[in-house]
Amino acid sequence: MDTTAIGNAAVVARSIVWSGDLADKLRRDAFESTLFAQAAADKQRIPTNEQEALAWYNVYTHTLGSIGWTVQQYRFTELELNETQGSVDDAVLTSFAGDEDVDKPLLASVTRGLLAFARAGRDSDAYRVFNQASIASSKFVSFQLVVVKFDQDEVILTLWAFFYSSEEEVDDALWFSWKNSKVSIKTSKIVMTLNRGLYDQVRDLIHQKLNDANKLHLLVPLCECYLDLALPVSLR
Questions:
Q1: pTM
Q2: Smallest Cα–Cα separation from 198: which of 208, 206, 187, 190?
Q3: How far is CA 70 from the centre of its chain?
Q4: Distance between CA atoms of 127 and 183, rounded to whole angstroms?
Q5: Cβ within 8 Å of residue 43, ≥6 positions away
Q6: DSSP label at 89?
Q7: β-pair type (15-18, 140-151)
Q8: Interval 61-90: pLDDT, tens
């Protein structure tokens, strides 16, 4: 797969992944390893409720660990939503703004990315792939935002996972809005580093398995405007 055709930000099934200015091989590693872990989790669990979502993430993180990603930090929280109306994208940005590890350049990059994604519209491949993968049932959704960077000779992946349930039916995973209703949003944050020596041993096998299982079509550009856009210098 030519990841230069994907660019620096991609929809990878139920994940949106920013890869900054990573070298193409490392970008492919980030995209394909997270897609492979999702596919492995999907085989064992369908996240149609909170309990199944937690079980799905256990398989997901275990799979990442088995192919070279080492967990450095894990945190699970619940967003307190007291408003009688709101939207998921606003809740995501509020969560990012309250994260002490998210600096202003990253928050700005994520905001721009989500705005560009929204502008791409419902007919885009990115919207179709992300929505179909994220909505496991009509009232339960799970998705991830991922940032991968190269820092001090380490490939570092930070993943923010969001899942929520609603009293109303959901047909738009990221831009679902509610009014006079109850929505429960929970999130976890995982920071991982890549053992590149270990991943070198499984890279070709992972690509082949994704290709054989017809999963590579779940990796698409976030939008055309991101093909040549890198993360801010502070995130590299």
A1: 0.87
A2: 206
A3: 17
A4: 22
A5: none
A6: H
A7: parallel
A8: 999 999 999 999 888 776 655 556 788 998
